[in-house]
Amino acid sequence: MQSANVTIIGADEVRGLLDKIQMRIEEVPAYLAKQTSDYMIDVVHVITGYLKSTIHPDGPWAIADAYYAGFEADRGWSHDFPELALGHLTAELIAGKIVP
Question: Where are the alpha helices (DSSP H) in the chain?
């Protein structure tokens, strides 16, 4: 049995594109944490501004360091700033980060 020499035209371009997509996928957790924390800052109820000032991305997470952040989120839907921010994350937002 003889093997044929087959050349796939565009294989190097496809490999480069896949490498780029893989790098972007590795950036997604930090990107989503930043997007989530930015949106949390936009929707959190502000009285003194302390809670808002403690919201930040931390690795793959969006964090609110204020000691009462959980109590604020538990006050009801309009106060649940983490849930509202997570609802802002869409497949389009994520795909837009991955697809070059």
Answer: 11-43, 50-53, 69-73, 81-88, 91-98
Do residues 98 and 22 make contact, with C-beta atoms less than 8 angstroms apart?
no
Dist CA 73 CA 69 (whole Å):
6
Rg value, the chain, Cα: 21
What does each of the 100 residues of the chain score in pLDDT, given as a tens digit?
556 776 777 888 888 888 988 998 999 999 999 999 999 999 998 888 999 999 999 988 999 999 999 998 888 878 899 999 988 888 888 888 888 6
Distance CA 24, CA 34 (A): 15
